[in-house]
């Protein structure tokens, strides 16, 4: 009898979990954003953002970001991990310890929160990339 009661309880829990999951899936919708038709807003001189989802100031978020040709952002860090995938141009990265990356179309880079680096856009083409984070977006300049 005890095994039957345990099995009924587990089955009930499983059914409730499946109903909750199905309900959550019904609330989700397909999201489509065309970066070539969206309205980018100034984020900083040389950087513009088109929010795809979430909240930049509170996180999490996802966004398209454009760096102007030749844009340069002196040594800084971010409090949250950032993940970027470049679509056009090139995102330029140089870490505090000298690590350098030219992140071109089809390439990905992830920077952990607290990573001190310099970044910028290609001299000729700038950069267009998709960026996401589980936290907020901030830019904390290094002290000189």
Question: Can you characterise this structure?
Answer:
The chain has one helix spanning 2-27, and strands spanning 41-44, 47-54, 61-67, 72-77, 82-89, 91-95, 100-103, 108-111, 117-121, 127-133, 140-141. A hairpin with a 2-residue loop joins β1 and β2 (47-54). The model is unreliable at 3-25 (pLDDT under 50). With 144 residues, the protein is α+β, with helices and mostly antiparallel strands. Helices cover 18% and strands 42% of the residues. It folds into two domains: 1-30; 41-141, Sandwich (Jelly Rolls).
Q: Main beta sheet, described? A: 6 strands, antiparallel
Order of strands across the widest beta sheet?
A: 1-2-3-10-5-8
Record field, number of beta strands? 11
CATH fold category name of the largest domain: Jelly Rolls
Percent of residues in helical segments? 10-25%
What's the gyration radius in Å? 21 Å
The CATH first-level class of the largest domain comes to Mainly Beta
The CATH superfamily of the largest domain turns out to be Jelly Rolls
Average pLDDT works out at 87
Helix run count: 1
CATH architecture of the largest domain, by name, is Sandwich
What is the distance, rounded to the nearest whole angstrom, between the alpha carbons of the first and last residues? 73 Å
User: What kind of assembly state do the chains in view correspond to?
Assistant: single chain
- Low-pLDDT parts are 3-25
């Amino acid at each position: 009898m005890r095994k039957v009661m345990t099995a009924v309880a587990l089955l009930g829990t499983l059914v409730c979990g499946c109903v909750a999951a199905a309900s959550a899936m019904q609330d989700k919708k397909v999201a489509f954003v065309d970066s070539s038709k969206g309205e980018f807003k100034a984020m900083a001189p040389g950087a513009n953002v088109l929010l795809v989802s979430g909240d930049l100031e509170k996180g999490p978020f996802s966004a398209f970001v454009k760096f102007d040709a030749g844009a340069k952002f002196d040594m800084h860090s971010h409090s949250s991990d950032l993940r970027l995938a470049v679509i056009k141009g090139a995102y330029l990265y140089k870490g505090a310890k000298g690590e350098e990356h030219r992140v071109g179309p089809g390439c990905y880079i992830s920077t952990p929160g607290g990573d001190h680096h310099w970044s910028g856009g290609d001299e000729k083409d700038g950069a267009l990339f998709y960026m996401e984070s589980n936290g907020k977006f901030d830019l904390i300049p290094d002290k000189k």
